[in-house]
Amino acid sequence: MEHEGSQRFHLVICGGAALIAKSLVVRTTSDVDILALLNEEAEALSPDPP
Hints:
Helices cover 12% and strands 26% of the residues. By secondary structure, the protein is α+β, with helices and mostly antiparallel strands. A 3-stranded antiparallel β-sheet has the order 1-2-3. The chain has 1 helix and 3 strands; from the N terminus they run E-H-E-E.
């Protein structure tokens, strides 16, 4: 989903949200487990705020 003027993020996720994103299961989830953020060089960064 793109929104004009919004910031883009690349995330590494796991759990139910990852399975849904890959269309491996059809169900709902109430959370997204974020393992890391990816920078422009596709290097993993901590998702914890500084």
